[in-house]
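Section 5.1 Outputs to date
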Amino acid sequence: MTDLRLLQNFSGFRAFLVAPPAIAADTLGSTLNRIGVTMQTVDQAKWPGMCSTLNPDGNIIILDGDLNEAAGLPLSDIGRLPPAPVIGLLGVSAPSRLKALMRQGATSVLHKPVQGSAVFTALFIGINEFRRRRSFEALLNRQERRLRGRRAVIKAVVRLMREFQIDDDEAFERIRRESMASRMALEDICERLMAAPAEHDEAEPMLNRLAAGPV
């Protein structure tokens, strides 16, 4: 599992405030500046095009909870995480607005009008909780990759048994030797064997080598 040391120095981070122009950002901007975080106000209409450029380890999204979910963020498939830590900005803690922020991945909240003393706390909790969730998402991704790999290995072994009239031990041994010779993971070899020919042109030559058996 990745290192989960808590961050407490946010110098060099960049915060993007996604809020209507009427939102007063002076207190927020000046407080962030004192702890080394620069802030940029982003127009809601331009926001979707910027999401792909965000750095999860150096950017912060401060999202006004009064915006509707149409201004939402792209979320990852497994962990449903936003592209960077999200701090919600709320005037009224209505359940509907809280739920909307949670759906967009908010891990901390600042109340309007923003009090300077609350900013560091919101960043500390929001950023570190986001990092914790990313760590678990990475673990789930690895487990999902292993699960897909096991299915591919089973299918590849069955294919070789059927095509070359060999038993499962011999089929697996041939795949293992091919993996070692090509310096590729066993699961990757099997996935290529089971892929459509248009996706992997090397599948056919690989099958020819596997058909030869022990050298």
